[in-house]
Every structure is written in structure tokens, then in C-alpha cells.
Amino acid sequence: MPALLESVIAIALRLPRDEVDDALAYQVHPQWDSANHVALIGALEDAYGLIIADEDIPDLTTVAIIRAYVERHTAG
User: Fold this and answer.
1) First to last CA, the chain
2) CA 76, CA 73: separation in Å to the nearest integer?
3) Three-class SS of the chain
4) For the segment 19-76, what is each residue's pLDDT rounded down to a tens digit?
């Protein structure tokens, strides 16, 4: 899962794969703005077959948090 997650994030945020690590954070990196956050949520839903609840979206602000969320909501 880690390689898939990092690839999904890199593509959605239009970043080089090597810039995606657990410290990458929403509105800290210029590419992770509100528009790309919406794109990222959609990409995560598509890649993992998730439906991310609206109330969860504002909390998904770092790669580490997203990783934990995906692990909790999928088989791992």
C-alpha cells in the first residue's frame, strides 16, 4: 500500500514522487492547496474504493494522517 498511496498523492498534487513523505502537509507545500486537496480526496476514493465522509476531509492534512485513515478504512 505505501507505494500506491504515495503515487496517488504525487499524481493528485502534481508532485515528484520523491517529494511525498509523511511530513508533507496541506497548505504547507504550495502544490497542496484547496483545489488540489479536493483532487486528492477524489483520487484516494478512486484508488481505494473509499467514500470519504465530508466531515473527515478537513482532517486529512498530512501524508501520515492520510496513511492512517486509509489503513483504518481498508483491509490495509
Assistant:
1) 7
2) 8
3) CHHHHHHHHHHHHCCCHHHCCCCCECCCCCCCCHHHHHHHHHHHHHHHCCCCCCCCHHHCCEHHHHHHHHHHHCCC
4) 999 999 999 999 999 999 999 999 999 999 999 999 999 999 999 999 999 999 997 5
What integer pLDDT is reported at residue 64 of this predicted model? 96
Whether CATH 1.10.1200.10 fits 2-73: yes
Q: Where are the domains of the chain?
A: 2-73
pTM of the model: 0.92
